[in-house]
User: Fold this.
Amino acid sequence: MPIQLLDATVAAQIAAGEVVERPASVIKELVENALDAGARRIAIEARGGGLRELKVQDDGGGIASHELELAFERHATSKLTTSEDLWRIGTLGFRGEALPSIASVAQVICLSRTAAEEVGTELRLAGGEVQSRTPRGCSPGTSFSVRNLFYNTPVRREYLRSEATELSAISAVVQQYALAYPEVRFTLQLEGRLALQTSGDGDLRAVLIELYGLDVARQMLPVAAEVGEGEQEIRVEGLLSPPGLTRGSRSYLHLFVNRRALQPRGALPAVVEDAYHTMLMRGRHPLVVLNLFVHPLAVDVNVHPTKSEVKFRYAPKVHGTLGRAVREALVAGAGVPTWEVDEATAQRRFELRQLGQAAPSEPEPSAWGVGASAWDRERSRWDAGGNEAPFSSGEALAPSASPPPTADWHGDASNEAAGDWQGALPQPQPRTANDLPTAEPLRQSGKLPPLRVVGQVGLTYIIAEAPEGMYLIDQHAAHERITYERLITQFAGGSVESQGLLLPRSVPLNPAASALLLGNPERLAEWGFVLDEWGEGVMVRAVPATLPADQLPRALHELADHLAGRGGSTPLDWREAMLTTLSCHTSVRAGQTLSLEEMRQLLQQLEACTSPRTCPHGRPTMILMTPTQLERQFGR
Assistant:
């Protein structure tokens, strides 16, 4: 074929493909333009999953009337004048590609006015072509209405996800910049519903309250570090979660370089998570909001079409500074007073626990994380044979009447007390066969042997004996396997058993998670969930019958991550994600007291499982120490 120049329209649509991948891309570009224009208030709206209409309105500097058409020409920008400016970029946008790319694949209405002008100007475009220009009265600033996105490239629409997923992506973009610019007031409406509104008072914790709730915001630890001078100056600011507060995906890692949002992948997220080494369970990730400030000459932001990745001139120094700042914040966090809230008594208890002290009238923590007197009481009750009612093989284990603070080694503490306790003691790690050189996993052939329950150690492991030796059974992993197989049976039979709540429960969630959950009612109903819209999250009206109330918020967060496709997007991925999530959150926890009869019932249920030797995550449910191995430990 002969070489020829592409048609201008085709070339514009190809270029737009690099910048405008989905509705969230449009919001990102328009919000960045608003921030570069000095806006202090930014309002965003989305309808029809962002395809029918997107609106972004700001109170920034505006576009002069005589420059309005020029703003929609390719590579027209007010942020660069010479090639040297590329190496000291101090704005979020600079290429002059956003507006022409958006206009080439949508119908756009732009209304803008500068403070020096008496009236504004409205410009209408379709497919990149100007349709009309009209004087309009308006306040200083700029307003964009982007309608019928991809109307002239219908194939692009076929590659988009569901409306709920696209709205979630829009929410995620707005959340990023609300965290990076807490001094800016952001308002987000999705399908006419107010999803997010920040105060714009500059308080980062206030933004976290809006996104993740009061309990999360008050636990976050401050990070502050500054090294170097001039071109090698590096500054780190922000907040991060303690080891007991985690999530199931990296989407809660909010990292910024000079307040430019980055993707939660690559070197910087790896540095942050490496700083949590030995503090996090495998598969769990922290909540992080960190802004890394470097000299403009020391970072190249022009290495990715969407400006979501950067390169550093002094990368080793940047990584070292970031890693040390995170690690020092985690180590020093126990001694930092937490953010003041109205709950004075609970706050004092939280501070004392974080400082490693026992609260007044509470026993000192023992090596197992419970008071010595509590340990003695439990041991005496075991010796007496236990007094709780047994549970049937068709039911989930019920907690004892007054269990001690529980800890979930899979991530967050299961309640506030557990979070406090975990902050005062070293984070325990899951045991595997490798942790005990003389112990070996149960052999993979044959049924489980008949086991005689001896007791419970550390409120975490069940000790049992059999002719071949001593077994240590992880009570949480074992019950996970039991629940997992029970859920498989229920789902195969039509649906998971659901339980309506007498009093519906409100669960605060960030806008992205709410949009995903509310946008998939049928998929959630298959697993026993019934949710309604609620101002700060969702209103829960029914849950799977085995899901404890204290595990509901964590389960919903993880389900939103799965709906976003972070664990795979096929129906099989979704089914497996639901099974593992529900089995984890409906099982007895590490640190929960069990009577002898409850332990016997658990082992009987485990014996009936198809695959009793591992939990749904692949970890062993038990290990065996033979008499020979025990004798070797005692030197016999």
Remarks:
- Confidence is low (pLDDT under 50) at residues 335-446.
- Residues 461 and 474 are 5 Å apart (CA to CA).
- The longest strand covers residues 498-508.
